[in-house]
Amino acid sequence: MRLIAFALDLPYIENEENIVAIINEKGYERNEAIRQDYEANWKQKRREFALQTRCITACFERLFGYMNTRDCKKITINCMPEVPVKSIKKFSGGFYEVQTKFCYTSFTKLNDYEKKKISLDLLMAGVRQIAKAQKWDMAQFEQVYEAIVAAEWKNEWVWKKPVSSPDKKAVAHVFLHHEVRQMDIYLVICDKNGREVVKERIVSEEPDEWVYTQHLGEIKWIDDRKVALVNKNKDRTLSVNYS
User: What Å distances lie between residue 153 and 22, 80, 145, CA to CA?
Assistant: First the structure.
């Protein structure tokens, strides 16, 4: 089995005061009151945390590639206010979960740069626990960690191979910049000497692969001076000109 995926999660913590209030007000059974509390007070917070940390976990995945393991393909680090007993949970299908101490309120007060640094530290804290228990060599993990730090926690890369213009005088590529709050997609044109002559942001989207990858279909030159990004459904074309 190959380890290829990493995630930070904010597991639901029951709020007894909220649950009792819902039971008293609505007359619900406890299980339904818990569900109502989760939907009203936790679901969106959990979603935002996943999105705001995804730029780092996705960067880690991209640089990590894969590692052969006996039975693990994804590691989820559950970030919680208290971790009385550190434990590793294994689920069928190759999913591992581990807990690490974390204060969400403090996280919300950080700027985006600080959030990226904390996200990487949380990820590594969880990975180190599992690696120690499984007797994995940490070298590959540490190399990725150092690469992200060296890149100043920026997750940016070129998508697919550059495409030459019909007259071979220019080359275009798509440049992706994944941040805490958004994914920016650029069309970039370089001349035949490799000099960047156009860099235009054409999409600013939610930082979620299920959302932004819908824009990534193919790079297509319309003519010698215009290049376009066609979406996956082939029903939207965004173009820039090269003069």
Answer: 42, 23, 9
